[in-house]
Write a structure and sequence with these properties.
The complex is a heterodimer of chains A (204) and B (161).
Chain A (H helix, E strand, L loop, with lengths): L2 H18 E3 L1 H6 L10 H27 L4 H30 L7 H25 L7 H9 L7 H46 L2
Chain B lengths: L2 H10 L1 H11 L3 H19 L8 H19 L15 E3 L6 H14 L3 H11 L4 H8 L3 H20 L1
Helix pairs in contact in B: 2-3, 2-4, 2-6, 3-4, 4-6, 6-8, 7-8
The chains are: A mainly alpha (204), B mainly alpha (161).
Chain lengths: 204, 161
């Protein structure tokens, strides 16, 4: 059977569909189309929220560190935390920019699929680093206790260091395991999909 | 664009949406969800439609993109949709004939194709010009021709077997 023979059968089938297909207008009118979101909107909103919250965090750490600038035991961890928050902020900005560049309705099919695959790859790649970096936020402990609760963690330094070390070890181990068993695999799949689309485009 | 105009456009192109859903979703339940997703995306995209391309080209792009995206993620993810009891576009008084056997076989063949090849073959079967197929998919015309001839060869071998 040749495809061109099937093409005429397909044309007949199309005519038959025109006679038999019914559009349920009542159902369509009752659907809340205006409030629906496309699949990319939710992760994009998450990233925009990430940009805002990390900007606030960075400003808070810088501000709080400046308040205790004469006490290096608080302001140094504070400034380090601000740098960590700034890294998170930079990651969120990178992801948001990629999301915003996607023209869901104006690009060709392959270009859109390629753009989506690229965003997915970037998100997964950065999520790995975000996870690895997450225990570093503990550094803000002394500053937070001081500024928020007015508690000096250095008076009981041993227990504080023990708690920090414990949370740090658990945090690092958890992030490594999550990366190994979840994100590494997802990232490889994203890479494979992107390569598949690129190969298709170039007809390899 | 008002809902009335949208419905009128959809009425005219309902076959196209139906065939895309049928090709990307073998399961009728999932097909209902995909149909809903495509209609949502078409509605959302209509305010951006500026008439620079044919309306059918526009519908193909949005519907195929949604179908491919949906196909890759699988249907379970769709949490922003309300579960519908009925299909928005459905068949009624469709009497099967001899030709339908060929169409069923053709759909089975399409189901086995790569998600992007599915789009290509649907556009080809719907008698779109190579130039239009290239524009919708974002490929060169030569590439479209090569891929179509490869699919033709593949189909010939499968139907022979």
């Amino acid at each position: 059977m040749e495809l061109d023979e099937l093409k005429s059968a397909w044309a007949q089938y199309d005519k038959k569909l025109s006679r038999s297909l019914a559009l349920n207008e009542v159902l369509l009118r009752n659907m809340n189309l205006k409030d629906s979101k496309n699949e990319l909107q939710k992760p994009m909103m998450t990233e925009i929220f990430g940009v805002l919250s990390m900007a606030v965090m960075t400003a808070f750490f810088v501000g709080a560190s400046i308040r205790v600038i004469d006490e290096p035991q608080y302001c140094i961890p504070g400034f380090i935390s601000a740098v960590v928050a700034l890294v998170y902020l930079a990651f969120s900005v990178m992801k948001t920019r990629k999301f915003l560049k996607i023209d869901y309705y104006g690009t060709s099919v392959i270009q859109l699929q390629q753009n989506i695959a690229e965003v997915n790859r970037l998100v997964l790649k950065l999520r790995k680093y975000e996870l690895i970096l997450s225990p570093a936020i503990l550094i803000s402990g002394p500053l937070l206790f001081k500024v928020v609760h007015n508690v000096d963690v250095y008076t009981n330094i041993k227990s504080f260091l023990f708690a920090m070390a414990l949370v740090f070890v658990v945090g690092i181990s958890a992030s490594l395991l999550i990366n190994k068993y979840l994100y590494d695999k997802k990232f490889q799949n994203a890479e494979r999909l992107l390569k598949e689309i690129e190969d298709y485009k170039l007809d390899k | 664009m008002e809902k009335d105009q949208f419905i009128a456009v959809l009425q005219e192109h309902r076959n196209l949406v139906f065939k895309i859903c049928r090709s990307y979703c073998a399961n009728p339940e999932n097909r209902k969800d995909l149909q809903q997703e495509i209609l949502i995306q078409l509605w959302k995209s209509f305010e951006k439609f500026d008439g620079r391309v044919k309306i059918s080209t526009w519908i193909y792009k949005v519907a195929l993109n949604t179908a491919i995206f949906y196909y890759r993620k699988d249907s379970k993810h769709s949490n922003n949709k309300v579960s519908l009891d009925a299909s928005i576009i459905s068949l009624s008084n469709f009497e099967p004939d001899m030709q339908d056997e060929q169409i069923t076989m053709l759909y089975q063949f399409i189901e086995r194709l790569h998600s992007l090849d599915k789009a290509l073959i649907l556009l080809y079967l719907d008698d779109n010009k190579q130039k239009d197929i290239a524009e919708i998919l974002g490929l060169s015309e030569t590439n479209v021709a090569t891929k179509i001839s490869r699919i033709k060869k593949n189909l010939k071998e499968q139907f022979k077997a």
